[in-house]
Each structure stands twice: as structure tokens, then as C-alpha cells.
Design goal:
alpha/beta; Rossmann fold; 10 helices; globular
Amino acid sequence: MSNNYALVTGASSGIGLEIVKCLAEKKYNVILTARSEKKLIELSSEISKNYGVKSDYIKCDLSEKGAPKMLYDFCESKGYQIDTLINNAGYALPDLFHITPMEDEENFLRVLSTSVIALTKIFLPKMIKAGKGNIMIVSSVAAYAPPSSIQSLYGPVKTFMNRFNEALNTVYNKHKIYSTALCPGYTVTNFHTASGVQNEMDSVPSFLKKSAKRIAKEGVEGMLKNKKVVVPTKTWKFIVFLLKIVPKKVFDILSSILVPGRYE
């Protein structure tokens, strides 16, 4: 059996776990990483049993500066060749910008951006040497939306990640390394509860909420086709299209009706 692996961050639940399942179904060996070791032990065993692939795990907190190197060293020590890197880990900060402690902002930025850059940088050389590789950055439709009155840094960080994704493709496609920005809209996971913003999610109309399984499936299929950006579901493709052409004043009115509280 191949010793090539897909490394998935934030793999213990939500979109990350569904991506693991999608990859395992396609016979990818997988490495799961997240903060909950208990969940990782159970899930890694289930993935191997249910899909007949090799699965391993490592507990890791990406808010810690040394986390990316720890993941790389783990893979090196086990002889795992990472040809697919899924940067999925993320969360949101529930409080207003002026209330949130700077330490929390720094940890947030480290998980959603700095660790993505560090992991990509540290695994790229071997992808270049192998002459192939896929990278996925789980971004968000928030990257296209106007600034929100809550989660002040979330949209800007996702916009930054989309631009980083563009840069990776510009430089590394010639090495047959492709990066995909997966940009879902509202997705039914434990993300909102864990981030303390479940009230916001509860106010969203049901037709805007999509399943993590569907998001993961469209994301993985797009990545394997070397698509640079994947906006899952026709609903959110249409909304992103509108975000690009509808004047902000009109969008503000629509948003106040569909997602009250987000754009006040």
C-alpha cells in the first residue's frame, strides 16, 4: 500500500471530518489532526476499518507557534509522504473587536492564516521534488462579502487566504502543484456553537444552510480537478455572483432581511 498521505487539519468534526471521509472513500491514506485526542483515536480507527486505508492521527493545537513543525516532524518520523494538504482548521471569535483580548486575536490569526502559510511552506519542497501535489485552503463566502458588524477579522482573513491561494497557483502550477480555495456559505456543523455564534446561525433561513457532507464532496472533487476556487452549491454560487455585481446599498437591505444582526 502507498505511503502517500493526505494531512487534514481540523479533522475531528464538521467539514474537516467529511473531507477525511471523502478522501478515504477515494482510497487516500489520511492523517487526522485536531485538538481532541480522544476523538482522533476513535475516528482514525473507524476510517481505517470502514474504508480500508491507512489512517493515523496526531493531537495538535494550531494556535501554538511550533505546531506546523510538530506536524511535519511527525510525518517525517513515520515516513509519510504528504501529497495532499488540507488546511481546514478554523473558528470564529464571538465578541466585538474592541472587547476581544489581543491574545485571542493573535491565536485566531495563527490558526486561520499563519499556520496555513507555515504548513504550506514546510510541505511544499517535497511536493516540488515529487513533481505533484494538491493543497486545499478552506476559506469562506465571507471572503467576497462586505465587512460584517460581527467577527470583524473573519472576512478579511478569508480574503487574504484567497489571495494566498492565487499566489500559490501562480508560482507552483508549473510544478504540477495546485491549490484550491473552498469557499462555503453557511454550513451545518458544530462550528457556530463551538465559536459562540450559534444565535447568528439560528437566524439564517434554512435554504442558505448546507450540509458539511455536500460541501466536502464538492470541495474534494473540485480539488482533484485542480480547480482554483470552489464555491459549493448553486445557491452560494449565485449569491457570490450577486455579491460581485449588486451595489452595497441593495446588498445591505437584503442582508438585514435574510441575516439580521450581521450587517447592522
